[in-house]
Design brief:
Chain lengths: 477, 295
């Protein structure tokens, strides 16, 4: 059941109604049952995995809490992390590597010991695995006490707004809320609905519309000309932002209607002036997770290497980020690219800051604009390897862009609607970035402005949205 | 916030939504009617698929023959869809249409389904009984009721562009490209397309002709031209037999004529085609002039 389906729009009011009539003491149980019903609706068998991850996480965090010896606590932590990583490693990486080896060895006349493995990746596995690893580490670090109620842990793992594509939430934020679930608050419903409305706009009107152009070009790289490919390269980051950003808003909005606060996942990323700034604004939940549980401990343990320690930590962190998205050489290169960008910035940070201060560049609009364009360009270039199916295709993209151009693939309707959508999103982000709270539409005190805004977005979605069902890009993770 | 106040606001919002939805849909329908020429008296109606959409400039045709020309055509429509379109036209537009220019092509009687969800093109006209019934038979319950209740959801981006063209009076083709002769010749080399005559489709065709006749209209059955390489993929004898069927059919009907535009001067001129079956702007002018002369 996609969040953008009619079925979900009928499902959510039922959820809210059921949640409302449940006594406070059992609201967590209602949400747990609903979450499992939601997940079973997708692929029942994989719900067993979530049960397994839940049981393992609950057991070992309780063992950690009840143990006084640090060596034991460490052991429990490591065992749990390995256990909950195993399904992810198997479904996401082992089967891919196995199948690649099978093809490679087969082409050379050799047999491989394992047969071809054809599994659909359990939806959400990358997200709830990371959430549970984070929880386990937090318990080990005594930042949080282990949850005593296995049902609450199960709800943390399977909470339906988050399970499919995040945000990757923290136990510190979610468990206390699940323990003290409150009655429905009409203000929360209103605020949640506002977030969802904007999420639907981003997903259906912007992301899916851009996808109609980008998909055609990327699926026909050999026959498309360099100018069409360049246009698709420029449009793709907006597609991903609108898709994942839109989805995140839907997840946050749905949780908000139930009175649950979930972290925001995007913060106007295309107004970043450096790559480091960009990664503080893009897929915030994932980057924060990687920073807290990977980069910080790594850079601390490599601190004696000085700047080189930071660079190694950056490269490893983004390498993991790359392969978290996809088990492929392309994503390894993607990760290395991001790490390289950040490493160059780390290296040149001092000199750059001195230069900027000397000429007061950070106060110059033209300098900030160029910085934003440069940051966007670097990200767009890295997304080429993320979007194409292979390194060869990535190389083809670059070759075609820098070769003589032919006819532009001109789907005027799609391009026109895409550009209008992008402009609307960027305008909203621009106002929020530079003139926060100056223009209030959804939260305006004037009922006419509020209602006009709601209805305008609704009609934009109905008239310009791609309403025939497009899977979220990030579902595949 | 009190529940009753919240409830009242939600109800107000829904009512406002439905009211605006109604108004917007009326504006959009008018745009569609203007594009097709269904908003005014039509002496001639063109009916067919993308071949006639690219094949005729209805406005230019009207200027030449000094008559009002409407064109109720859409990509991907089959005979069943066209029957619904003509029924819709005759039942709802008070015109004394003299001639129906009816597109014919070699695969008209084949059972090949060109588009599974072509019924969606009729959503804007859902308020009409026969169209409503037609859609109900094909769409899922959910789809049907969503489009029935939310009127603006009947319009997608392509229809919005059509509406805009209707209001701006832009009826001509924008297809200025010329087909890649070498590539098309290479792709179609050795290809054979069977001309299948499914009896049910033949019966349906005759029903449509009966509908035209009973509404006191003449019919000009036009075999739309295709590029030579494509034309040659159809077995010559089968094509001749098909044409004979139409000639014979028309000879038995008063006011019915058959016109085959697959003539050498058109089919062998690659400059007239956008792709192997669709005319470009140049080709549209040539065909419009020929048919105007014929009318």
């Amino acid at each position: 059941m996609l969040f953008t389906s009619i079925n979900f729009l009928l499902f959510l009011p039922l959820v809210i109604a059921l949640y409302t009539i449940t006594p406070a003491k059992y609201k967590w149980l209602t949400l747990l049952i609903i979450s499992y019903v939601f997940y079973l609706n997708i692929k029942p068998i994989y719900a067993l995995l979530t049960v397994g991850v839940t049981v393992s996480t609950y057991t070992f965090t309780r063992l950690m809490d009840n143990s006084k010896k640090d060596s034991f606590r460490k052991r429990y932590m490591m065992i749990n992390i390995v256990l909950i990583l195993l399904p992810l490693l198997y479904f996401k990486y082992f089967s891919v590597i196995n199948n690649e080896l099978l093809i490679y060895l087969g082409s050379r006349g050799f047999n491989w010991i394992f047969p071809e493995m054809k599994y659909l990746l359990p939806i959400g596995i990358s997200y709830y695995t990371f959430m549970c690893i984070g929880y386990t580490i937090d318990v080990y670090n005594e930042e949080i006490k282990a949850e005593k109620n296995i049902g609450i842990v199960a709800l943390f793992v399977s909470f339906f707004p988050l399970i499919l594509s995040g945000p990757i939430e923290r136990a510190k934020n979610m468990l206390p809320q699940f323990r003290n679930l409150k009655s429905i608050n009409l203000l929360n419903i209103k605020q949640g609905a506002q977030l969802m409305l904007w999420g639907y706009f981003m997903k259906l009107v912007v992301a899916d519309r851009i996808g109609m152009y980008v998909d055609v070009v990327y699926n026909n790289l050999h026959s498309e000309s360099g100018n069409s490919i360049l246009l698709a390269v420029i449009l793709y980051p907006f597609q991903v932002y609108a898709d994942l950003g839109g989805y995140s808003l839907l997840a946050i909005g749905i949780a908000k209607t139930l009175g649950i606060d979930v972290m925001h996942n995007f913060k106007r990323p295309f107004f970043a002036i450096t790559v480091a700034d960009f990664w503080r604004r893009w897929h915030i939940s994932l980057i924060k997770w990687l920073t807290d549980y990977l980069y910080t401990p790594l850079s601390f343990s490599l601190r004696k290497l000085g700047i080189w320690g930071i660079i190694i930590a950056l490269q490893l962190t983004f390498l993991i980020s790359g392969i978290w998205h996809y088990a492929s050489l392309s994503m390894v290169i993607w990760g290395v690219l991001q790490g390289t960008y950040l490493s160059i910035e780390a290296f040149s940070h001092k000199q750059k800051t001195e230069f900027e201060n000397k000429y007061g560049l950070r106060n110059r609009k033209w300098y900030l604009f160029i910085s934003m364009l440069l940051t966007f360009s670097l990200f767009a270039i890295s997304q080429i390897v993320g979007r194409t199916d292979s390194i060869a295709d990535s190389a083809l993209v670059f070759t075609k862009i820098f070769s003589p151009w032919g006819n532009l693939y001109l789907d005027l309707t799609t391009l026109l609607f895409s550009i209008v959508g992008i402009v609307i999103v960027l305008c909203k982000d621009f106002v929020e970035e530079f003139y926060p709270n100056s223009i209030r539409l959804f939260s305006n005190t004037n009922i006419l402005i509020r209602y006009s805004s709601y209805l305008s977005i609704v009609f934009l979605i109905i008239l310009f949205g791609v309403l025939d069902g497009n899977s979220f890009i990030y579902f595949q993770f | 916030m009190k529940f009753t106040l919240f409830f009242r606001k939600v109800v107000l919002l829904i009512m406002l939504f439905l009211a605006i939805d109604f108004v917007i849909s009326k504006v959009l329908i008018e745009g569609l009617n203007r594009y097709f020429g269904l908003n005014e008296k039509a002496d001639v109606l063109i009916n067919g698929s993308s071949m006639v959409m690219n094949g005729f400039d209805r406005y230019e045709l009207g200027k030449i023959i000094d008559l009002d020309v409407a064109s109720y055509s859409h990509e991907g429509v089959s005979l069943v869809d066209r029957q619904a379109m003509l029924q819709h036209f005759y039942d709802n537009y008070k015109c004394d249409v003299k001639t129906i220019i009816f597109e014919i092509h070699p695969l008209i009687f084949s059972s090949y389904i060109r588009s599974k969800n072509v019924y969606t093109i009729f959503y804007p006209f859902m308020d009409v009984d026969n169209i409503d019934y037609y859609i109900k038979e094909r769409a899922s319950e959910k789809e049907y009721w969503v489009h029935k209740i939310i009127r603006t959801s009947r319009f997608d981006s392509n229809k919005l562009i059509t509406v805009a063209r209707g209001y701006l009076g832009v009826f001509g083709s924008f297809k200025t490209n010329v087909l890649d002769k070498e590539r098309v010749d290479k792709n179609l080399h050795g290809v054979v397309n069977e001309i299948v005559i499914a009896p049910q489709k033949q019966e349906l065709f005759e029903e449509i002709m009966q509908m035209i006749e009973s509404n006191n209209s003449r019919a000009l059955l036009v075999m739309m031209p295709m590029y030579d390489s494509k034309f040659k993929t159809f077995p010559k004898d089968d094509y001749k037999e098909l044409c004979f069927y139409f000639e014979d059919f028309c000879s038995r009907k008063d006011g019915f004529e058959f016109l085959d535009l697959n003539i050498d001067s058109i089919t062998t001129n690659a400059q007239l085609f956008f792709d192997d079956v669709h005319l470009n702007v140049k080709g549209q002018k040539v065909v419009t002039d020929i048919v105007a002369g014929h009318l």
